[in-house]
Amino acid sequence: MAEATEFKAIGTRPVRPDGVDKVTGRAQFGADLNLPNMLYGKVLRSPHAHARIRRIDLDAARAMPGVHAVVSGADFPGAQHGEIGGEGGGDVADVAKNVMARDKVLYHGHPLAAVAATSQAIAEAALAAIEVEYEVLTPVLDLEAAMAPDAVLVNENCFTKNLPEPAEKPSNIASVMTLARGNVDEGFELADVIVEGEYRIPMAHQGYIEPHACTATVNESGQATVWTCTQGHFALRTQTANILDMSVADLKFIASEIGGGFGGKTVVYLEPVAVMLSTQARRPVKMVMSREEVFRASGPAAGSCAKIRVGAKKDGTITAATAWLAYEAGAFEGAPMGPGAMCVFAPYDLENFRVEGFDVLVNKPKVAAYRAPGAPQSMHAMESALDDLARELNMDPIDLRLKNAVAEGSQAAYGPKFPAIGFRECLEAAKAHPNYQKPVPEGAGRGVAAGFWFNAGMESSAEVHINEDGTVQIIEGSPDIGGSRASMALMAAETLGVPYEKIRVLVGDTEASGFNNVTGGSRTTFATGMAVIQACEDIIAQCKDRAAKTWGVDADQVEWEDGQAIPAPGVNAELKPLTLAEIMKTAARTGGPILGRAALNARGPGAGFSVNFGDLKVDRETGKVDVLSFTAIQDAGKAIHPAYVEGQMQGGAVQGLGWALNEEYIFDGNGVLENPGFLDYRIPVASDMPMIDTQIIEVPNPSHPFGVRGVGETPIVAPLAVAANAVRDAIGRRVHDLPLSPPNVLAAIEEG
Amino acid sequence: MSKVHVTTRVNGDPVEFLCTPEQTLVDVLRDTLDRTGTKEGCSTGDCGACSVLLNGRLVCACLVLAVESEGAEVTTIEGIATEEGLHPIQEKFLEHAALQCGICTPGFIVATKALLDKHPEPDEETIRYWLAGNLCRCTGYDKIIRAVQDAATTLAHEA
């Protein structure tokens, strides 16, 4: 544990290693690769939200000049059942059907055929030539309709999992879960005040600016190379191998630079299709989604309904809480009900609680992970209820949270005992923050809320090579979505005692790097960083050994300090320190090249807590809400590169505010998304937002050598309730549902 | 459809290409001329990832037909750095960590160039409105605005 250590590299803010290429246009993203002899792949998508495919005729498309491959569901083998892994929930067999529909199409935009042609225009003409006969079915479009006893079924073979007794008939409820402790009835008996509410949040999109894109090329021996923008090329390789019934060894995945993901690029959409088309055509195939396709058929976050009830004594002590949480999974099971249920009460030390979760099928796109999947929806409800409770009790909302906050040793609502955590520190910092001391501006309201995410560990691998001049090459396999090359280089610089500038970081392809799970769950700086640190420690051990050989002493008579081997105290003081460069000069004689490595399944990711507050102004004539100021406070454990930690906090805050204030999937009565573009699905722009003030709290994670906690996901959680609570403060009424868009807020003002 | 011959300049270099009449400038830049620094995020002019300068004016290359570049001067992200090195805007984006994934960065830098060419000393509101056509999903804009402010100050000192 490095709590008291003075760091040299860690905590500094150098330019990221990949920075120059990203400000000059050199960096290659998903759609930037063109190969000789390449074809363009395009997908035929369902015009119906729910329909049976009666007949599909590909002959006319196949016969068109310039068309070299045409595939539909029948060309794909059935995938084996298995967990998707990484960050998202669900079954790979479902992902296979999401990639290419078989007998039924389950949402508007569901792929059911694909072509590869010599130009995009010919590919589009070929799609138009595919004849499909549908039997149109009634779509299931909201949670109420889906959960009704006589509901139309999205999937006739879906039997609810985790019921006390096996389900007898199929249902749209794919699975249920319960978390409970104590006796909630007795707890509510003890309460002086009880608040309750029902909160709805529509589906929202991750909104990464780079559409999904990949290029695949398969040679005559069946070996495929896939270049793709992804948060996890290893995970996508596994999924593709399963879906296409291929050997993993025949699939090489190269991660391009990635233009945002937020959880949405952890699962395959195009890749298996491109491999299949390239296999048929025996030419490279490039596929790029349009923005409309991205909205209609990739990733949204689950829509939700949360019912919360919280009881407390006059002094603010919570005596009982219940949560009923239903999430829209889209067309296939796998909504983030589990993490949502596990997060909802996580910040609070509760004796009596009960959480029920429901994973519900609807005829909408299959949801994907979105930054702290499930937590924004459930914690928006809980943090709104706590705001109501603080009002009822006439308590400061931070004091109410301090009264109930978990601390080291508390039994988390989701199971384990917390080691050192920084929730109370965040609350106290918020209370003392100058922005919190300031009066709320005229016409505005102030909202406060907490955020939480478990953070993740999982599998990572890293190699460290010492170049012949003593410079350092790191090879790992975690796509760099927001500066992780910089954090890897900083941790290596700190461990080895080598200047940051002498270190290079490669995100290796699946043939160059050991296995790395997805860049997701806020795991990369923690877990891949841990692998890099261990690989550097491996280097140090070897370098001490080489120095010992050079000096003719035992290895335990050598120490490592500031990037040099030095003789241990009491050993021949005449020996001059050996730098990495000097060790490498004689490396051929002392044992050859020096290569360190580590592969691990990182444990103890260290829970991430935040407290956010903001002042939001409501225009009482139009219902428009403006963010005047916003302060994000979060425990990072140890900020490796503080600027990129702040960036996560600021970016998450604005994403959360976008979801709270404006973003929503709007479907018509037939299940057709009405706003599949950035004009109508409006994410925050620069003129919508103020500066986002940040304060990093550092309560070191005892499971990481430098105390790191993941920081990527927690920031999106609190802003939803901050906005809701601020609007409640400003207009004197609670708007339970999101978004707090002008029509919704105006309706609440007018009702009042 | 027969192709049209277009003569233009891209980042100062004379360039000729053939395109169909409906082809957009972003398609030609990326796929015909291999200038993939200009990104495409929406194809509808809503995200600004394809921001380029056409005769010094900031445009979305996805909303400009390639044939409209006939006789024009096109400046893309590849033309922002000079022979002396990075442009101060690029340096300040790096120093301020004003990028996370980097997909929007070329568009922001080109848009910032257009802004500072016209308003060398913009206030925060002017910067936010000038850059409102460029979407960034990662940073929450804070560090981008600060980088632009710092770049403006640096350029003002150099002038």
List low-pLDDT spans of chain A: none
How is the CATH topology of the largest domain in chain B named? Answer: Ubiquitin-like (UB roll)
Rg of chain B: 16 Å
Largest inter-chain contact set: A-B, 58 and 57 residues
The span between the termini of chain A is 55 Å
DSSP, total strands of chain B: 5
Tell me the fraction of residues in β-strands of chain B, as a range. 15-25%
What topology, given as strand order, has the largest sheet of chain B?
2-1-5-3-4
Care to describe what's here?
- The complex is a heterodimer of chains A (752) and B (159).
- By secondary structure, chain A is an alpha+beta fold.
- Helix content of chain A is 28%, strand content 24%.
- Chain A is built from 21 helices and 26 strands.
- In chain A, helix 10 packs parallel to helix 11.
- The radius of gyration of chain A is 27 Å and the shape is globular.
- In chain B, helix 2 packs across helix 5.
- Chain B folds into 2 domains: 4-79, Ubiquitin-like (UB roll) (Roll), CATH 3.10.20; 88-158, [2Fe-2S]-binding domain (DNA polymerase, domain 1).
- In chain B, strands 2-1-5-3-4 form a 5-stranded mixed sheet, sandwiched between helices.
- Chain B starts with a strand and ends with a helix.
- Chain B is α+β, with helices and mostly antiparallel strands and 159 residues long.
- Chain B contains 5 helices and 5 strands, in the order E-E-H-E-E-E-H-H-H-H.
- In chain B, strand 1 and strand 2 (13-19) form a beta hairpin.
- The radius of gyration of chain B is 16 Å and the shape is globular.
- Classes of the chains: A alpha+beta (752), B alpha+beta (159).
- Chains A and B meet through helix 1 and helix 19 of A and helix 2, helix 3, helix 4 and helix 5 of B.
